[in-house]
Amino acid sequence: MTFALRAARSFVLAIAAACALAATDARAADKAGPADAFALLDLNRPGLEQVKREVEARDYDAAAAALLKYFRQRRAGKLPDYSNEEEPVDAAKAPDAETVRTADNALLHRFRPHKGYGFFDYGADIDWQHWPVKDNEVRWQLQRVKWWDAMARVYRSTRDERYAKEWMAQFSDWGRKNPPDGPTRAYAWRPLEVSDRVMSLTTTFHSFVGSPSMTPAFLVEFLASYHQQADYLPGHYASEGNHRLFEAQRLLLAGAFFPEFKRASAWRKSGIEVLNQEIGKQVYADGIQYELSPAYHLASVDIFLKAYATARRAGLESEFPASYRRTVANMTHAYFDFSFPDYNAPMFGDAWLGEKSAYLKRFQGWLAAFPDDPAIRYFASDTTEGNPPAHLSKGLTVGGFYTFRSGWTPDSTVLILKASPPGKFHAQPDNGTFELWVDGRNFMPDSGVYVYSGDAEVMKLRNWYRQTRVHNTLTLDDADMQITQAALRAWQPDGDVQALSYANPSYPGLEHQRTVLFVDAKYFVIVDRAVGTATGRLGTHFALREDSDPVFDARANRVHTRYADGNNLLLQNFDKDATKLREEQGKVSYRYRKEAARPAFVFEQAKTDAAPRTFVSVLYPYRGSEAPSIRMRVGAGNDFDRGRLDLTVMVDGKEKRLRVSVGAGAAPASHGATAQGGR
Questions:
Q1: Are strands 441-442 and 600-607 parallel, antiparallel or unpaired?
Q2: Rounded to the nearest 5°, which phi and psi values hold at 564?
Q3: Are 95 and 153 in contact (CB under 8 A)?
Q4: Which residues contact 168 (CB under 8 A, 6 or more apart)?
Q5: Residues 226, 232, 296, 359: which is the catalytic one?
Q6: Mean pLDDT across 32-50
Q7: Cβ–Cβ < 8 Å for 439, 567
Q8: Which of 64, 347, 557, 675 has the most C-beta neighbours closer than 10 Å?
Q9: Three-state secondary structure along 483-520?
Q10: Are 103 and 153 in contact, with CB atoms under 8 Å apart?
Q11: Quick check: 22 pLDDT over 60?
Q12: Rounded to whole angstroms, what are the CA distances from 88 to 95, 429, 543?
């Protein structure tokens, strides 16, 4: 049997598997003729005339050779296009040392599936089922075969044929050992992993197709497998969330990169249809992506824009309505509204910190899509061009992210609070939590996310960070919040006393009402109310940055930081003797599988009956090594039950009277706050 016949049979076997994923129909594949190996291609496309003639003459060896020549000519003189990758690569630059290390380890079958871990040895005969750490991400991301791209980039730089030969060997090995109905189906054929391969294989193929080691037989094998994987996606999209977006974006790319496939137009159409549907479902009117994780909000913005750019290159941008671009632009502005001056956003839900350089690259991509947007230009230029948004404080009232902001520069004071509807997988039971930035420092970062999912031990690690009590919010008996369905009572983002008030039915029989006042664009007063018949131990929790070295004063219910640069924060509770200060365990994770201990504490009081309980706290940034003296006086007009605040704050003898009305009970969101401040 000639190589073309063998390759054609492999091609047909792959197609049969794609058509019968539950059980490969080998008999049907055996009956298929070698002509079927080329039947998936549109041989009437310009450039494929020779391939068509050889197929019609049934000379499949010559047809495969002509097809390889066609693809080599198609990529000649062009760099791979990495614009669809999650982390775009400059293909004109030589690979960095880490990429070379990854490629060289891959030659030895030492792979690093996830950045949170090191390299693992998968054996001389690669064991694609090996699960060295019982973290699902390790098993899933192994199947994304990211090191193939590293091998391709090093090959393009060195022309060392070892990388080309090893990639082809691994590609064939993966195909043999991971059929869609085989034992690795749950992770090798999880649609997100399939879509990741469909995306990355475009640049890998582009880099290796010119290698003298690539044979016509391997080309046919590659095209068979690629077609099988791309064609798998339309019938297996994730039902919701960012996975569904990624899969649609990447299927659109597959159809644009390989227009030679007859199914290419159907792939492009499917991807566009899904994205048009999902952008209306997943993006709230205020621009927040419904998973309520800033990290996945950013990912969704990039997905929508990359898909549009791919469609535009294919001449299909008209398939997206004008509302699609408007929604994406709204998402970019939403991100600016809930981000800090270093361009990071709070680590709400499954989120983590990024590097400023990466944010600037991302914003520059947004600017390419919206060149006339002055706010995007402002951030993309690192504030040297364009203009910041005209507003400061901003409430994104549907997704429930609220920002108090004194300015857009690093020396500003910014508090961002989450009071949201129910989120999806990446959200946490944490309504009311917030982060506080003052003069270049994030004093109260969210706990973050340490790990995603896996066996019982991994889930124990993950669930610690998901606990309500490790967020800056109220708990009952330290239990996790059972309901996250915040109802806005009042939002007043202007003036010298700005106000936010919401209510969340956190536990059966207990509603948490939180009111936050931003006073003189400098400090905050937080009034927490626990309303309902439930009884138990109430606590308002706070956690500080790991290097804050705080002083705990249990007698005065005060905690203050001790930074040598003089940029410090005081937190003080002003309840009666019933409230006690207690230190508790705190941790923070800024990177996957990286954590640090940090100071955390709670103000606690008992709720023994149906009467409401109230906590009043002040967060006061100050300069110097000595914390200010703060006292509070409750005025005659104060009525917590009716949502009327009349509080006088005295800082080192200077008084500020705060008179705010936020409405009683679960007032409708249309009720605004009225606020007055007096000296």
A1: unpaired
A2: -65, -25
A3: yes
A4: 208, 213, 214, 218
A5: 296
A6: 85
A7: yes
A8: 64
A9: CCCCEEEEEECCCCEEEEEEEEEEECCEEEEEEEEEEC
A10: yes
A11: no
A12: 13, 33, 35
Neighbours of 45 (CB within 10 A): 15
Confirm whether 296 is a catalytic residue.
yes
pLDDT digits (tens, 9 = 90+) for 102-161: 999 999 999 999 999 999 999 999 999 999 999 999 999 999 999 999 999 999 999 999
Cβ atoms within 10 Å of 314's Cβ, excluding its own: 19
| Average pLDDT over every residue of 302-330 | 97
Tokens of 387: 């203009």
Total Cβ atoms within 10 A of residue 670: 7
Tokens of 33: 């003729």
**Angle, vertex CA 365, rays to CA 363 and CA 366, nearest 5:** 65
Helical axes 241-257 vs 294-313, angle rounded to 10° = 20
Q: How far apart are CA 237 and CA 248, in angstroms?
A: 8
Angle at CA of residue 85, ends 81 and 90, nearest 5°? 50
509-539 tens-digit pLDDT: 999 999 999 999 999 999 999 999 999 999 9
Question: How big is the chain, counted in residues?
Answer: 679
C-alpha to C-alpha distances, 343 to 22, 140, 432, nearest whole angstrom: 47, 30, 22
Token pair of 560, please? 């203050």
